[in-house]
Amino acid sequence: MIRQATGTYHTTATADEQVRAFVPLPLPPVPPLEITGPRQMLLERATLAVGRLDSISTLLPDPHLFLYSYVRREAVLSSQIEGTQSSLSDLLLFELEEAPGSPVDDVVEVSNYVAALNHGMDRLREGFPLSNRLLREMHGILMAKGRGSDKLPGEFRRSQNWIGGTRPGNARFVPPPPQEVEPCMAALEKFLHDESAPMPVLLRAALAHVQFETIHPFLDGNGRLGRLLIALLLHHGRLLSEPLLYLSLYLKQHRETYYDLLGRVRTAGEWEAWVDFFLEGVEETARSAVDTARRLVRLFDEDTRRIQQAGRQAANTLRVLAALRQRPVLTLTAASDGMSFPTASKAMDRLVAAGIAREFTGQRRNRAFVYDAYLNILNEGGQPL
User: Fold this and answer.
1) Residues 6+ apart with CB under 8 A from 73
2) What is the DSSP string of 71-86?
3) Residue 194, CA atoms < 13 Å, CB-side half-sphere
4) Are the CB atoms for 32 and 3 separated by under 8 Å?
5) Edge-to-edge, what's the strand order for the sheet holding 357-359?
6) Can you give the pLDDT of all 385 residues of the chain as single tens digits?
7) Bridge partners for 329 per DSSP
């Protein structure tokens, strides 16, 4: 359905020029979304795919093992959309306090993303409401260190921003003036908890993401936090018990379509086109995550069986393999937790000889190892733009 513009334009002065800033109308859309026929079927398929993803714990011997790496994969992908060049291995090395050859600012940004997500999920589990206060807390962590740390971490902006272009006058989009940010975010928070207008969780997440990106309430970090908002909403709405669904790879692969659809919602009220795109992304992403989990289970089982055939030496080697499953990039010091360093070193050498692990520093001391097959599965689609 094509409506009219989903907001009003306010003339404001910034950077010594007059610009028309867009102020979105409160959600939900008027008239309501058309959810019939093919769109209803798409919603049902996406919801079913998310349900299968939520039951992933039945596939994995340790669901948190998958969650640890999958969250970090998402952090890398979401940050790449904003222009960072970090890889998953860069982040995992950084978390071991070793990041050779990696742009430090880029890795710090990705690490902040993981910390912000973990903080948000911990707060929700404590019973804290999904609210603007929580979003500000997460933003404070997201922007605490590295680039953007001087752009009011944890605070709504008090100046005009813009998206695209070299200045406000030629920008692709100008969000609301700063005095409208608080009212717009208050209306968004109200929509998130509006029980008078029942709506499937996926639809509420689809609408809320666009509204957040349109308001662009912070000076920096809006894209990353807007994508995190989707994960929080699916958990808060009890579709997912753990934050396992992330659309960053899908949005990265379809960037131009994504930006075009956001613009069409604002200028012509084409919410349905956006919802179709969003639901297709949810279904595709959920199916891909389940497939990734299944492939990892097969990989772990196959490698475990190979090591078990080594006889007396198998026990310690399996312990080091288990450590690599938890962290696919690992130093010998970290791998030796619970055993002597020489024992861990010999076990790791056996994994290298079996083609399971690979030493990649080329050093005799402070060696680090990667579980290549595991990391390759996680890295699919994760190359910097």
Assistant:
1) 88, 378, 379, 382
2) HHHHHHHHHHHTT---
3) 18
4) no
5) 329-331, 368-371, 357-359
6) 677 788 999 999 887 889 999 999 999 999 999 999 999 999 999 999 999 999 886 777 677 777 888 888 888 888 888 777 777 877 887 777 644 445 566 788 888 999 999 999 999 999 999 999 999 999 999 999 877 788 899 999 999 999 988 888 899 999 999 999 999 999 999 999 998 878 999 999 999 999 999 999 999 999 999 999 999 999 999 999 888 888 988 998 999 999 999 999 999 999 999 999 999 999 999 999 899 888 988 999 999 999 998 777 799 999 999 999 988 998 888 888 888 999 999 999 999 999 999 998 777 777 889 999 999 998 886 655 4
7) 370
Ramachandran angles phi, psi of 243, nearest 5°: -75, 85
Q: 3-state class of 14 per DSSP?
A: strand
The identity of residue 224, as a single letter, is R
Tokens linked to 246:
């992330």
Buried b (16+ CB within 10 A) or exposed e, 320-355: bbebbbebbbbbbebbbeebeeeebeebbbbbeeee
What CATH topology corresponds to 309-379? Arc Repressor Mutant, subunit A (1.10.10)
Report residue 206 as tokens. 């689809």
What is the rounded distance in angstroms from the CA atom of residue 323 to the CA atom of residue 333?
A: 11
Kindly state the tokens that stand for 73: 């994969």
The fold for domain 7-291 equals Fic-like fold (1.10.3290)
Domain ranges of the chain: 7-291, 309-379
The pTM is what?
0.91
Own/partner pairs, 28-31, CB within 8 angstroms, 24+ separation: 28/191, 28/194, 28/197, 28/199, 28/207, 29/3, 29/207, 29/269, 29/271, 30/3, 31/1, 31/3
